[in-house]
Amino acid sequence: MVKGGRGAAGVVAVAVAVACAFGVVAYAARRDLAELRVRQADLTAVLAAPDAETVREPATPGGTGTLVVSRARGRMVFTSSGLPELPRSRRYELWLMGPDGARPAGLLERTPGGITAPVLAAPGRADDRIALTIEPATGSPRPTTTPILLAALPST
Questions:
Q1: I need a surface site. Which of 78, 88, 109, 139 has the fewest CB within 10 A?
Q2: Taking the model in full, what pTM does it have?
Q3: 85 and 13 share a domain?
Q4: Closest by alpha carbon to 93, among 101, 103, 84?
């Protein structure tokens, strides 16, 4: 009888562990969904802003970058299409540029079809350009290559 009790206790322990694991997964999924909703709202606010201006600029190795800026909202959205695929050790990195130099604005994530996921960034008042470079996969604190795309930020 002691043996059966241990077996039942083991089954209960496994069931509790599984339930805890599902709880953690469900909590993480809810948090991720909430973050996604906030991001979607931020993207929509920039794209729909009355002062939104769109700039399209070709990249030197091929492809095009598209930038939508709302100075009133203090945000910009960047995406691209047709950029050549890079080796796993490299990534495209977006930079905001102004009198104080370049600062990272985000790493581009490729989606199926060669389009990159939108990057949402907050240009400073003095930022007047964006640049796109090819960097190590983890990104860089400063550009390490010549920009393949350079575009002026609208000053609206």
A1: 88
A2: 0.76
A3: no
A4: 103
The position carrying tokens 């470079």 is: 133
Instruction: Name the residue range of residue 21's domain.
Output: 1-48
Residues 109 and 129 in one domain: yes
Q: In this structure, are 109 and 42 located in the same domain?
A: no
Per the CB < 8 A criterion, the answer to whether 135 and 109 are in contact is no
pLDDT tens digits in sequence order for the chain, 156 residues long: 455 566 666 566 555 655 565 565 555 556 556 666 776 788 788 888 899 999 999 999 999 999 999 989 999 999 999 999 999 999 999 999 999 899 999 999 987 778 999 999 999 989 999 999 999 999 999 999 999 999 999 875
Instruction: Tell me, yes or no, whether 135 and 61 share the same domain.
Output: yes
Number of domains in the chain: 2
Q: Where does the chain show beta strands of DSSP type E?
A: 53-58, 64-70, 75-81, 90-98, 101-107, 119-121, 129-136, 149-152
